[in-house]
Amino acid sequence: MNSERRHLNPQEKIVALKRHLLEGVPVSTTQARSKVRIDVPEGGKLFVSGRHIDVAPGRRVFETPLLAAGQLYFYDMRIDVDHED
Question: Is residue 13's pLDDT more than 80?
């Protein structure tokens, strides 16, 4: 097993620390999974990267694939809700 640790540059340290503070994800120098939490209101339709995801209303938690430390990731998410006036 390789015990050599890679040193993070300052930007990587900031990203890792933000992930740790926001998600409780251990600070890692390799790869880790993260969780995305979203609250879907009654009658709301969730879309991820333009694709409709059929989920029930309430808090939904999705686990990401393995993510490399020090990289920025994003999901394009939206919720459409019909409002009757």
Answer: no
Amino acid (one-letter) located at 42: E
State the DSSP string of 38-83: EEEPTTEEEEETTEEE---SEEEEEE---EETT------EEEEE--
Q: What is the DSSP string of 2-47?
A: --PPPPPPHHHHHHHHHHHHHH-PPP-SSEE--EEEEEEPTTEEEE
Q: What is the pLDDT of residues 50-68, one digit of tens each?
A: 999 999 999 999 888 888 8
* 8 Å CB contact between 43 and 78: no
